[in-house]
Amino acid sequence: MSTMRVVRLFGPKDLRVVDMPVPEPGPHEVLCKVSRVGVCGTDHAIYSGEFTFVKSGDVHFPMTLGHEWSGTVAALGRDARQFRPGDRVTGDTAVACGYCTECLLGNYDRCKDARAVGTINAWDGAYAEYILMPERHVLHLPDSVSFDNGAMVEPAATAMYAVNRASVQPGDVVLVQGSGPIGIMAARLAKLCGAANVLLSGRKDAKLKAALAFGADAAINTTRESVTDAVRRLVPGGKVDRVIEASGSRGLFTESLGLIRQGGVMSVLAFYENPLEQLDLDRFVCSGASIVAVSGSLGMYPPVLKLMAAGMFDCTPLITSRAPLLEAPGVLARFDEHAEGRIKIMLQNA
Questions:
Q1: Is 98 in the same domain as 168?
Q2: Could you report the per-residue pLDDT of 260-282, keeping only the tens digit for each?
Q3: Would the N or C end of the chain have less CB density within 10 A of its end CB?
Q4: DSSP conformational letter for 142
Q5: CATH number of the domain enclosing 8
Q6: Same domain flag for 50 and 148
Q7: Backbone angles phi, psi at 157, to 5 degrees
């Protein structure tokens, strides 16, 4: 039996490179050789033990991280028909059971027995030389989409879902809270959806500069100016049509409620670690606005891949550093050391 090298997490801050058997694909499964893996903030939160779902016991150890990946098909199950060895691919961020009523209807995002790739109740992720996936959760990469962009499809699809759930319309003024990869991507996607003015907030000048280069119209450094003051300065009337809350800051979440116009929408895709308190819910109720939750990105991969293939959405400028896949333990151990300019770390499998 052949083996592969796997970066395996045995518990908080216990990340090791180990040998494991190369998985044998079942009838409808695809074995993929990993080429690229993006390091997500969620990966580090699980590694450090700070993630809400680690504390709740919903992350089960040992497990393999890695839900942002691209690679090539290495082997197929006997009944897999949509791929051939050598095909360039990426994969969904969740694996549905495939057998319940919702799955049989094709509603994989509604499967109650779904497992998240490399995170909660994990299906083993891509911090490994190979990843095994059900064929239904694997997607072809267009010829013009690089492995780097292929590994960025997952966070981009999450950003696309946030923009979609916020119902961004042509001419809208959109406020994106948070200057991480998903926030920066959401700003660009909001512009592609027709937003007239996109403001983005954050604390690091290097990331805000990258956001402006990527498509945001204005950047707000929250260490020097409140978001409320900036919106009043930049937007006539001091209100925005849509908010995309990607910061994970309870303060910014609360502040956002006072910045949405009558009937506006805020989509929320961040985790907050603790319950939010002292919300001015009465003021929010009177606003007639809506808050919508964004979890995952199933269904958003195809439009993102089409934008990438058309040359309209190249995410590679957001890659700020690279490292070999098997150096992932050191990368995660030093994750906070380069927070000033870090946007996306890309791991590469030789």
A1: no
A2: 999 999 999 988 877 777 777 78
A3: N
A4: P
A5: 3.90.180.10
A6: yes
A7: -65, -35
For residue 170, is the peptide bond before it cis, meaning its omega torsion is within 30 degrees of 0?
Answer: no
Q: What end-to-end distance do the CA atoms of the chain give, in Å?
A: 21
Average pLDDT, the chain: 94
Decide the pairing of beta strands 260-268 and 290-293: parallel
- In a domain, residue 289? The reply is yes
Same domain, 98 and 164: no
CB distance 95 to 123 below 8 Å: yes
Using an 8 Å Cβ cutoff, are 133 and 32 in contact? Answer: yes
**CB-based contacts of 119, cutoff 8 Å, min separation 6:** 42, 46, 53, 59, 65, 67, 125
SS3 of residue 7 by DSSP: strand
Amino acid 286 reads C
* Domain coverage including residue 198: 156-293
**What is the distance between the alpha carbons of residues 346 and 192, in angstroms, rounded to a whole number?**
25
What would the pLDDT profile of 51-69 be if each residue is shown by its tens digit?
A: 999 999 999 999 999 999 9
- Are 163 and 224 part of one and the same domain? yes
Give the distance between the most distant pair of CA atoms in the chain: 67
CATH number at residue 207: 3.40.50.720
N residues, the chain: 350
Cα 61 from Cα 89, distance rounded (Å): 27
